[in-house]
Write a structure and sequence with these properties.
single chain; alpha+beta; 177 residues; 55% helix
């Protein structure tokens, strides 16, 4: 879609408002440019910089040296005054996309899994859960996997099973009486 720079800035602010959580640069680009054709990739990067410079959004550090963008008070005010410049059908489309994809985006930002080669020929799989806006992991588990394929499979499964695994371990190890 071809909109002017002001409208595209409002689109980014609207996305951040509707997602109701801080977003990584990759998440914003994926939402705007990859999954949807709302803003092209290069414009999206430039607009994030401009919004940050105008203090309508701000960055905070989180896991693994990653930064997340947050909507500032000024950004919310700007959005409340000017969101009507964005076509209603696009506002509705963004709201629907956000509602349908919020959980998967949250999982992709908060559940981390990676593997490395171990000296014995196996693979060390590190899986973590991060809370929004917290640098240190809430939960971390490391396991050895015998093959690269099993390490990759563990990383894939972690995104779906992390909340259940954490809940099970927490309930069985920590008693809140």
């Amino acid at each position: 879609m071809n909109y002017d720079a002001m409208t595209n800035k409002l689109v980014i602010l609207w996305i951040m408002e509707k997602m109701e959580m801080p977003l990584t640069e990759n998440s914003i680009i994926e939402i705007c440019s990859v999954k949807n054709n709302w803003i092209n990739y290069m414009d999206c990067l430039d607009l994030l910089y401009q919004l940050s410079e105008a203090k309508l959004i701000y960055k905070t550090a989180c896991k693994e040296g990653e930064m997340r963008y947050n909507l500032s008070v000024e950004g919310r005010d700007c959005l409340s005054y000017f969101y009507k410049r964005v076509p209603k059908d696009l506002l509705d489309e963004i709201a629907e996309y956000s509602k349908a994809n919020r959980l998967s985006i949250k999982q992709s930002q908060e559940y981390y899994a990676n593997y490395t080669d171990a000296e014995d020929g196996s693979y060390l799989v590190t899986m973590r859960i991060y809370e929004t806006m917290v640098i240190e992991p809430l939960f971390e588990i490391k396991i050895k996997a015998p093959t690269r394929q099993s390490a990759e499979e563990a990383c894939k499964k972690w995104k779906q099973k992390a909340p259940h695994i954490y809940e099970h371990i927490f309930e069985n190890l920590i008693s809140i009486d």
